[in-house]
Design goal:
The chain is mainly alpha-helical. Helices cover 49% and strands 6% of the residues. The chain binds zinc ion (ZN). GO terms for molecular function: RNA polymerase II complex recruiting activity; RNA polymerase II transcription regulatory region sequence-specific DNA binding; translation elongation factor activity; zinc ion binding.
């Protein structure tokens, strides 16, 4: 396969990935695996090595495995042709972490109390605080047998700050052992959490996945490009005018995979899509809210009031092979959220 063919096929692969067509992705990757003779020049000119490298963290295990195989194979091929300069070989001075990057990553912890993020009113809020409705839903769920399918268990963690949330205030306390990466995860968490109704673990999970995927895009090096990319993503997530983007990422409507390849324009257009989704979601809650099928559970922690008294139902909102979406309603404050 020559350079032009590789570039062409790479485009098809990108398209298949964005459309989440698993069999097409696997087919194209197999072509890469079978028909590409990896050279340093080819990988450099087409960027295909980095692109395939990204797929190592693809949620589909077959795709991730094939990506790992290809990277391994190409790495060996390149190293054999030029052992001194593999494009994959990590830099040896990895113990010196650069921190002079526009203050994005600082070795010292930032005093967060001085940076107050004002919690905005999320418009399109579908919850109407109504204790009688909550009681109604509660009594319905008590009379019903619980749903047979069990949602993923959320950790029992306390949200101390009700409203104005951040990594520090939520007491997340997660570390990769690398200060640069930790800072990025913290900032991602802050940008996703500050006005979120979702529990800690869902948000942390998203922040971790985004960071990991970007790290993989830059071949495991938390250096300048990695920080630039994440800085751009974080500033878009924090955008007060675009709550739809961060809500979509937290709820899973925008997959981490997709978010990591979105352009600025695509991120901007998410606001409208999110509003459409919220109307749909509000209708779903309404349709199911008075029904007898909601199960009561203490498995979910409300991101608004911190209580664990919730009802939930699960529904297939996308294609049949996708995981179910879980819709949760807090009985105490009537906060509603969903995740998949
Ligand atoms: Zn609540």
């Amino acid at each position: 396969m020559n350079i032009d063919e590789v570039v062409q096929l790479k485009k098809s692969l990108a398209k298949a990935i964005s459309e989440e067509k698993t069999s097409a992705i696997l087919g194209i990757m197999k072509q890469f695996n079978d028909d590409v003779v990896a050279t340093k020049e080819l990988l450099k000119k087409t960027d295909i090595g980095v692109f395939i490298g990204k797929q190592r963290s693809h949620p589909n295990a077959d795709i991730a495995r094939l990506a790992k195989d290809i990277v391994k194979k190409w790495k060996t091929a390149v190293q054999q042709s030029d052992p001194s300069k593999s494009i994959y070989s990590p830099k040896t001075n990895s113990d010196t972490v650069k921190v002079d990057d526009g203050g994005f990553v600082k070795p010292q912890p930032i005093d967060r109390s001085s940076i107050k993020i004002k919690r905005e009113n999320s418009q399109g809020e579908i919850s109407t605080p109504s204790p009688s409705l909550a009681k109604l839903e509660n009594s319905f769920s008590e009379n019903s047998s619980p749903s047979p399918s069990t949602p993923k268990l959320e950790n029992d963690r306390v949200i101390n700050n009700k409203g104005d949330r951040s990594f520090k205030k939520d007491n997340v306390g997660y570390s990769t052992g690398d200060s640069t990466r930790d800072k990025c995860i913290e900032l991602l968490y802050d940008s996703l959490a500050f006005d979120s109704n979702n529990g800690i673990d869902i948000i942390l999970n998203r922040a971790k996945k985004i960071e990991q995927m970007v790290l993989d895009q830059f071949d495991g090096e938390p250096e300048k490009q990695y920080r630039d990319k994440l800085r751009g993503m974080i500033s878009n997530l924090k955008d007060k005018k675009n709550p739809g983007l961060r809500k979509g990422v937290v709820s899973g409507d925008i997959t981490v995979q997709k978010f990591c390849v979105m352009t600025k324009e695509e991120m901007a257009s998410e606001e409208k899509k999110a509003r459409d989704r919220e109307i749909q979601q509000a209708n779903l809650f309404k349709a199911r809210g008075a029904g007898p099928t909601q199960a009561e559970t203490n498995m979910f922690r409300c991101g608004k009031c911190g209580e664990r008294k919730t009802t939930y139902f699960q529904m297939q909102t996308r294609s049949a092979d996708e995981p179910m979406t879980t819709f949760v309603t807090c009985i105490v404050c009537n906060n509603r959220w969903k995740f998949c």
